[in-house]
Amino acid sequence: MSVPARIDLHTHSTASDGTLGPAELVGAAAGAGLDVVALTDHDTTAGWAPAVAALPPGLTLIRGAELSCRWFGAEPAIPLHLLAYLFDPGSPELVAELARVRRAREERGERIVRLLQADGIPVSWSAILAGAAGGTVGRPHIAQALIRAGLVATTTEAFGPDWLGERYRLPKDDIDVFRAVALVRAAGGVPVFAHPRASRRGRIVPDELIVELAAAGLAGLEADHEDHSPAEREHVRRLAAELDLLVTGSSDFHGTHKTVRLGAHTTSPEAYERIVGLARGVTPVASG
Ligand code: AMP
Ligand code: ZN
Ligand code: FE
Ligand code: FE
């Protein structure tokens, strides 16, 4: 390849809390000049088949997911996100765990709605579920309900401390992060810690946990991400070098639920090759 490959390894579709359907997403990825895109919806593989079916020529699809995890070494436990690439989507234990987390998300969503309603805020759980249209429900769907009710103007505002960021923030029953790493590995997948230093989103985990996760099978760290400052990116890169973890960069594209564009951050071909080389579940897909 004469021009350096453009590789974006973290995107969301309507199978979770993005706004483009999986088919539209791969079309947009090609339109944005990407060579490789990973579809990593929260806790689901439902977007894989429609994305494969619509894959435009010249684009390679990495099938993945972003797993909702929790580290129980702090009190209260700290939530974190694990990207999982190229795992076997039929692995029974992983399938069961993803289904359990999706149910837990619905339970939490409904409890948040009840808290809002108790304060007289006119939001409806059935309308929020309809907005998610069968995809994994998340706080961005509740944010849309707050926007529809005229209470906030933007998703960012809905994640502020008066709303979903603090006052109406409830934990969900996530997967223990060590169990998640083990399940992804057992399914032939490659686990990469998503935005590990995104302190502006909430509490972050100590480097000591990342050292332990690396020993437990974690393969990489996401460094270049919208929610990392330059210093945080550098910190992640240094830690990855010390632990011999691969480093990724990604947009974490969510359509109009966020402002970041596809390909805003990218991954090196070397890191991409490492991921593909480690994977034993499914292969990258390129349309013929
Ligand atoms: P949940 O998975 O339901 O806990 O919601 C987390 C999702 O909300 C993340 O994956 C992002 O898509 C989105 N999100 C988190 N923080 C923010 C923020 N400050 N502004 C906009 N979207 C956010
Ligand atoms: Zn999201
Ligand atoms: Fe995330
Ligand atoms: Fe994400």
TrEMBL record:
Pfam families hit by this protein: PHP
Record-annotated Polymerase/histidinol phosphatase N-terminal domain positions: 7-71
Gene3D superfamilies given in the database record: 1.10.150.650, Metal-dependent hydrolases
Molecular-function GO terms, alphabetical: 5'-3' DNA exonuclease activity; 5'-3' RNA exonuclease activity
Lineage top rank: taxon: Bacteria
Annotated protein name in UniProt: Polymerase/histidinol phosphatase N-terminal domain-containing protein
